[in-house]
Design a protein that fits this description.
The chain is of the alpha+beta class. It contains seven helices and five strands, in the order H-H-H-E-H-H-H-E-H-E-E-E. Strands 1, 2, 3, 4 and 5 form a five-stranded antiparallel sheet that branches.
């Protein structure tokens, strides 16, 4: 999105790659120690306002900063599933995954082997972990892009504008599958939407020298 976008392969190949992902998630790198869980932030166990209280988050961001990357691109589900209140998580998960499955229906048949693998090995595990697990057992801690912006800026990164040509190419690519795909810009980040519901955020960052 910052430079030229590589052409995407068939949707079945993309789904197959996603389905083959291991159960180890990015959230595991950011998992908090039991002693710190839910103490400082009622809203987020990985709150950017308390970087010092989240050792694994601090270690991870320090490691990234020490690498001094020229470019860091982050894509994340645009949903807030990191709260302590179970009913709030259920409502937010229902809102997000309803749109995601609607999106899948427009692209892949429900009997597709690749889709069945994706749902059972990835999406199903995400939903189960979000709803049924608490404390350190809950690995799925999705947060919206505004929280990642604060967290990364505090860690010494600054946003890199996404290219206009990249956005146009991405729009053309996704709308080959459905015209319900839309893009929104928010805080210099790109939101990939299904109709008007954001599904994923894309942001680019560089190390602030």
């Amino acid at each position: 999105m910052v430079g030229k976008i590589s052409p995407a392969g068939p949707s079945s190949i993309n789904l197959q790659r996603a389905g083959q992902m291991g159960q180890r998630t990015f959230a595991e790198w950011l998992e908090r120690d039991m002693i710190n869980a839910y103490i400082l932030s009622p809203d987020s166990a990985l709150s950017p306002l308390f970087l010092g209280a989240s050792p694994k988050m601090g270690i991870f961001l320090n490691a990234m900063r020490n690498l001094k990357p020229k470019l860091l691109v982050i894509t994340e589900q645009e949903s807030n599933l990191n709260g302590c209140n179970l009913m709030d998580r259920i409502d937010r998960a229902l809102y997000f995954y309803t749109s995601l499955f609607d999106c899948l229906d427009s692209t892949v048949t429900r009997t597709s082997v690749e889709r069945l693998k994706l749902e059972s090995m990835l999406l199903g595990e995400q939903i189960k972990n979000t709803i049924t697990c608490e404390g350190v057992d809950r690995k799925e801690r999705r947060e919206k892009v505004e929280k990642w912006i604060r967290r990364l800026e505090m860690a010494g990164f600054e946003k890199v504008p996404l290219s206009y040509n990249g956005r146009i190419e991405a729009t053309s690519l996704l709308q080959r599958y459905s015209h319900k795909y839309k893009f929104k810009e928010e805080n210099d980040c790109l939101l990939i939407c299904w109709s008007d519901r954001p599904l994923f955020s894309v942001s680019a960052w560089s190390f602030r020298r």
